[in-house]
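Researcher: We're reviewing a set of sequences before deciding which ones to prioritize for further study. For each one, I'd like a predicted 3D structure that I can look through quickly. This is Blue-light-activated histidine kinase. If possible, include the structure in token form so it fits the rest of the review sheet.
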Amino acid sequence: MATEIENRLQGDEALRASEERRKLDAVDAGLALAEINYLDDTGYLSSEAARLFGLGEAAMILPRAAIHATFHPDDRAEVSRRIEASLDPAGPGWFEMDHRVVGPDRKTHWLRVRKQVFFEGEGVERRPSRAMLAAFDVTKEKTASEALRASAELIRNVLDSLPQEVVVLDSAGTVIAVNEPRNRFARENDGVTEALSIGADYLKACRTSAKSGEPYASAALGGLEALLGGARDELMMEYPFDDAGGSRRWFVMHAARLGSGPAGVVLSHTDITPQKTAEEALRTRAAALRRAEALARRDEERLRLFIDHAPAAVAMLDRDMRYVSFSGRWLEAYGLAESILGKSYYDVFPELPERWKHIHRRALSGETLTADEDRFDRADGTTQWLRWEARPWFDAGGLVGGIVVFSEDVTERRRHEEQIQNLMNEVNHRAKNLLTVVQSIARLTIKGTDSAAFADVLEERIAALGASQDLLVKSNWAGVELSELIRSQLSHYAPLLGARIMLDGPPLRLNSSAAQTLGMAIHELGTNAAKYGALSNESGVVRIVWSVFEGGGGPGARLNWTEAGGPLLTPPARRGFGHKVTVNMAKRALEADVALDYAPEGLVWELTAPLANVIAKAL
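Model: Here's the predicted structure for Blue-light-activated histidine kinase, in token form for your review sheet.
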């Protein structure tokens, strides 16, 4: 772009004449050109430049100050600094930058500007006489760049929120992304910091470890090379790691290709040390049972003694399924009395399902059976989830004398897993609902808004939805007080609350659906009042009143918005997004009756809905 602009700026320096300015207007409409005259402090804008600066559609001459007034407040200081530097006879005499301009119509444009200053005189008399300026409209580019940045930030936040440690490699095995859990792991273990830094050769680190004889590193290296080469699509392996504190930890690494053909790889490392510890504990318990079996072959009495003092829930039963021995933990796990010795297993547990009796018969036939998670519905109506093992024990003659049952109550662990799954399902459900609402807002907004204002209007409406979401999140989705919701949606008019905006009504805690629906409606009513209604002048007032009542169809809730003192109203020529939100969406979402009256003295909006559709459920 710089070369193209320089070529155009280095043409005839006599463009000040009106004939040459007409030629200037004939330049490609995609390039806006302007000439600044420092001798009379004026500027000439081509028609394209006038349009981009938001000053009109035709070429014009105007004071420099009028051009400078269009500079965006946040960019004005830097643009002015660049201009002053270019006007310095000892300076470069030109500059190039991107900045925003805001015209009288309040529309913002991003411009990519190059300015070349021409000087006259020599020595101390040298001074700027005029300048040529060329600009491109790069608003779409900036908008796309911002969207890309926001998308990248969202992806980064999602990655950083994951409990797994994530590393992303490009097709050459170079680290291109690392999430915060993996960075934290690197900081806590200095030896791996270099290998996990952006731009590091991940495979090189694997090769170094593999050369030292580390078998897990060799396996990881081979698998990753196969993934990057397209020979396989997925890799999963467990490996140990000795951390900086000297403790051995276990991880499972899952690696998957990011696409077909030559592609990168995403790796996740999950700490499975607790599971490994539990497995080791289970192996220890299983080993204890195997030792008990060996003891049984030698001496049944020694086996009984062992079971009596076993640290786990263990019971020894004879071939008739009568208790021979049991541990204290067995009694504790099932809430049994010590007097069960000699009693039938099935008398103690009359609720035992037939399938478990079948398992016992198989164990008495010599099989060893296990289950990691099995449901046991107790006679008192409670449910236990058990991990168990049933195996035969042998008498002194080497025959099956009965079975030994080992069990572990995993009810609490399963309950936690179900809670986590339910939470994930709820988060997924709410996220989908929110996305559906956002999509509806976008569709309805674009139908009634010109493309230039679409982004601003959509942003305001999504911000209104976000304000309702913030209140719901703050309350852990337990509901939102209607008064707090109204104040949040009318926060732009906070100085008017209590003076020109009056609220009156009892405490009323809304559910999430009502909060979202009424939040959007209040936002639209407030925006309409500020533009056309009671809040568009200095004397108008808005009264917002709500109540709960007993009706023929059951309890109901009523919300009324009444404006007075504003300009005389006339009904709109067409129904737009505001009508859909304040009337149609409210009717559908809350099964409500909605009345909207554009009375000349002020707008009146009233919603009546079944209380059950509005109020939050008590926790």
